[in-house]
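Raw record, unedited: Transposase
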Amino acid sequence: MTKSELKRAMVLEKWIDGRLAEQDVARILGISIRQAYRLKAKYRHGGAQAIAHGNRGRKPAHTLADSLKQRVMLLYQERYFGSNATHFAELLAEHENIHLSVSSVRRILLEGGLRPARLRRRPKAHRPRPRKPQAGMLWQIDASPYAWLEDRGPMLTLHGIIDDATGEVVAATFRPTETLEGYVTVMIEGLRRKGVPLALYSDQHSIFHPPKGKPTLEQELAGEPPSLSTFGQALADLGITHIKALSPQAKGRIERLWQTFQDRLVIELRLRNVCTMEEANRVLPELIAKHNRQFAVAPQNAEPAYRPLPETPLEHIFARRQYRRISGGQTFSWKGKCYMPKPVPGVPRWEAKSVVEVRVGMDGQVWLWDQGRAWPCVETQATQTPAPTTAKKEAAPASPRKPAANHPWRKPFSSKQLQRSTASG
């Protein structure tokens, strides 16, 4: 018997002995006088056991069958291990046609010792930053290295962008490591799908912010702009305000996205038996769409803040940029190779020894950039590797001599040289 039942038996016994009145019994037990007389009749007829609850020891009619509990625990151990209770309940309904509440699933896992009992979160000591009112006002970009394929494949890094106003994952892709190519891929995909956002939130990785990007006091007094990375130059061309977070908590929305993905995406990839990066990127759009349908929210203002894309192709904007000198033969060097702009009828030749801007895309394609237009370049025969042949060996063409370190072409260009070359061009 419980403590409350023992208390009832003791009070009823005193009432029967005449030591308590009926009003006192009802007040002590917190029941009506009518209910007190019912309990007194039961106690006289059957003793203390008669006032115990009638369903004690019986199995409830709505309880889950033991066979169902065993099946749920077996499925968790064999297919869905590692998923939380909410995600596991969704997977059971989606793949196994087992519809259980999240609390029932959590109780089954705790009874079987398959999930640890988590402590309640501490109350937040600060108020989180509210969402932006319009979609496209702020994107958050980051990358998360993790064992996304578990022991079935290599370690991968997931690059992604999330919209601050809606929580929608704009774009994502897997890469072996955190690279510029990965960030450029998700940015181009997001820009083509949505448009140009107003601002971008990132960490202080050297891909976004070069170590020597902050100008010195002399440069600030001279009015010289700070040096930008390849990614930063592209953002400046698109007119996107770049905000650099000083801590992971500052861009907490995408940090919480990685926690959700590491909890759910790993299970989804396992169920599809994904073992390579190519397969993961192939099924990723389907998983991202599923995530957005479930977790994305409507913005406060339905009208988005996106701007239209520029006329310049995005591949030309998100490209590595360097300055080179044009030789008398209309060639320039890049990473030990010699390139030449494709001749175009009606276009004059570039002046020898003039400084030109060279842009190299993420796929290795080289362009010569002049007055907002990209001129495709080809590798000259002097640096191309001849095709293997079984015929008689011919003498290889002499490769151009590499200029000496103290040659004028090898010296860094000053601002006056750049202005003189631009004016002459």
